[in-house]
Amino acid sequence: IAQMFYAHFFGATEIFILVAMAYDRYAAICKPLHYMVIMSRRACYVLVLASVIGAFIHSLLQVLIVTELPFCGPNQIDHYFCDIFPLLKLACTDTRALIITIIATTGVSSILTFLALVISYIIILITLRTRSSEGRRKALSTCGSHITVVLMFFLPLIFTYVPMADSVSDDKVFALFYTMIAPMFNPLIYTLRNTDMKNAMKKLWCQEKVKTIESSGV
């Protein structure tokens, strides 16, 4: 139960943080003169606190659903972490209503959040039409890493929670993306737009290339 709580807590926190980051980019690109007022330090604290509280409530509800179920059969699930759908399969009662409820809450909220992010970037792209080519390039460079993370996180999440959860084997593959692969690549994706990081990687690549040429020459 604790594993399921932490998995849902960190997953929901990342969803809310991605939404907050989309709002930050919207403010930076669409309202640059008011950015420091909109995204003040206090506003950032409020967004982070709201993300944590929202994730805690979401995870607590998932745990409360499971703890109220009777379990009288096998105690092994076909999954690599304790997720709610595999647990529901072990319950000794009819869980169809609960599955529909979870899909209607987690699945629909994931879709709505993803659509909200898409709409925010559509507004940003419309705003960029009036900017110079250099301004568009900088803005797209700023948003590129966030868009990549959003796609890597939300698409597997939607495929997991939106359909009826009968194919646990597919759920394992999708869950692997939004619980391990996307978080693992997050630091790399966000640092690739850093100029110092790019220069360091180019320097390292050139050094390795020179060493390869020298070794082949010898």
Automatic annotation (TrEMBL):
Going by the UniProt record, its keywords in alphabetical order are: Cell membrane, Disulfide bond, G-protein coupled receptor, Membrane, Olfaction, Receptor, Sensory transduction, Transducer, Transmembrane, Transmembrane helix
InterPro entries per the UniProt record, alphabetical: GPCR_Rhodpsn, GPCR_Rhodpsn_7TM, Olfact_rcpt, Olfactory_Receptors
Checking Pfam families in the record gives: 7tm_4
Q: Which residues cross the membrane?
A: 6-23, 44-65, 97-128, 140-161, 173-192
Q: Which GO terms describe its cellular component?
A: plasma membrane
Tell me where it resides: Cell membrane; Membrane
Stretches of the chain forming a coiled coil according to its record: none
Gene Ontology molecular-function annotations: G protein-coupled receptor activity; olfactory receptor activity
Its placement in the membrane is given as: Multi-pass membrane protein
Q: Where is the G-protein coupled receptors family 1 profile domain positioned along the sequence?
A: 1-190
Q: Which SUPFAM superfamilies does the entry link to?
A: Family A G protein-coupled receptor-like
- Principal subcellular localization: membrane
Q: Provide the family line.
A: Belongs to the G-protein coupled receptor 1 family.
The protein in question is named: Olfactory receptor
What organism, scientifically named, is this protein from? Tupaia chinensis (Chinese tree shrew)
The opening ranks of the lineage are: Eukaryota, Metazoa, Chordata, Craniata, Vertebrata
